[in-house]
Amino acid sequence: MTFRHLSTVIVISVFVSVLVSCGGGSQGSGVVLWPPEESSLEYGMVVAINDSSEVEETYTVSPVEDGEQETVPQWRVEVFGTEERAGEFAAEFEDYAETFASAERQALPVREDADRTSNIVYRLRRGEEAKVISRSDQPSDEAGFVDYWYEVLTRDGSRGWVFGYYLSGIEGSGGGGEENDPVDDPLLSRFLSTTWRPVYFSRMLDSGRIDLERFRANYGLFPEPGENRIRLNLEDQSATFEYEGWSRGRSREFVARGAPFSVIVRAENSISVQYTIDGEGYNVAMQSVEREIAEVRSAEQERREERYNSLRSRGNRLVSNAYGNILLRDDGAFQWAQYSRLVPSVIPASAGASGYIRFDHFLSQSLAEDYEGALSFRFVGATGQPVVFLYQFVSGGLRLAHVPSDDIRDKVVLRESLSPVIIFFSFEDGDST
User: What CA dihedral angle connects 72, 74, 80 and 82, to 10 degrees?
Assistant: First the structure.
């Protein structure tokens, strides 16, 4: 074959390929996932794929039963090789054919697969709707949050999976919030009969680091089913939600009718509550605590008193040639004179000479072997943070290492400063400074 004849064959082959790819007969069947506006197509309708354009990314389709051709974006149609397979998918899709879900949080990830480690293909804005296509067969436990994964389409054609915990408006996932009181549901009964605490209560109990300012009996969520209300009191907010009754929501979710409040009962001792205060939405995890709050607080107060008594038993005066003298009173009060060398790098100029010593800070595990603990000087004249030191008993005295506030989080000293101010005191007995 000559080069001229070969060129002619190639041109003809390419021309035929273009004809096949751009038209000329059915290319299979499809199911309409999301019909365009002002279209005669319907959700879940089986259609014939008559033509396609990879350049425009469109299909030309017509209903299998009867109807005119329409050109639609490819992402709105699921394509199959046979009409039979398309019909099977349409039957599966029927439960979600007209179901849309809204994101309950900002930047909610849409992922390639039903896995929280999968790549993110899109992020939904708070309140943004997405078309639901399918649902995972079983609920998934994602870091303690249990729900189904939902396959969705966005308005720009992005497609992927969203964890249902942060979706609302889904039908077929726990009943969609029907107007009935699930009074006999043991999960709801468990919620209504329990006092719920912020999750940091359990963390404090597990670690033994009880912050008395945050570990309080009046902090928590207090259902009052006899009054049809729920009281919420936390460190930075409080509210009372009065409701008319309860409706079932998503899996393990209960929605308070007449109040901006819902709860998901995740386990016997674990819930997640969603509520709105002054137009702002919140999502808070809470747990039940078996131990009596008053007993835990009392034990922590005794621990602190023992620490102070152990310090004072060595002598009620701390004496330093460079950093002044500290008188330790029996009620936890102190008087500190002649500490000018520590102003203002350690002690504020306005602090004054008196205050209270508190053993209200804790050591990270990395510091526990090197120090007895941490103590804080709360000066009467200082309105800011307390002055915190790591302390260590040494021969005849006390070694203090100042801890900047940047090295403290939630009352826990995380690390020793790279260039700490070190103070040595000797113990003496006396009544004046």
Answer: 30
Percent of the chain with pLDDT over 70: 89
3-state class of 423 per DSSP? strand
**What own/partner pairs with CB < 8 Å and gap ≥ 24 does 397-404 have?**
397/318, 397/424, 397/425, 397/426, 397/427, 398/311, 398/314, 398/318, 398/424, 398/425, 398/426, 398/427, 399/423, 399/424, 400/424, 400/425, 401/371, 402/346, 403/374
All residues at 6 or more sequence positions from 368 whose CB lies less than 8 Å from its CB, including other chains:
none
Q: What does the pLDDT look like over 354-387, one tens digit per residue? A: 999 999 999 999 999 999 999 999 999 887 789 9
Q: pLDDT-based confidence at 190, cuts 50/70/90? A: very high
Rounded Cα distance between 293 and 124, Å, is 41
Query: Which residues have C-beta within 8 Å of that of residue 322, sequence separation ≥ 6?
Result: 341, 423
Q: Which residue has the tokens 């404090």?
A: 204
DSSP code of residue 36: P
Percent of the chain with pLDDT over 90: 64
pLDDT band at 237; cut points 50, 70, 90 = very high
Peptide bond into 139 cis (omega under 30): no
For position 38, what pLDDT does the model report? 79
Per the CB < 8 A criterion, the answer to whether 113 and 151 are in contact is no
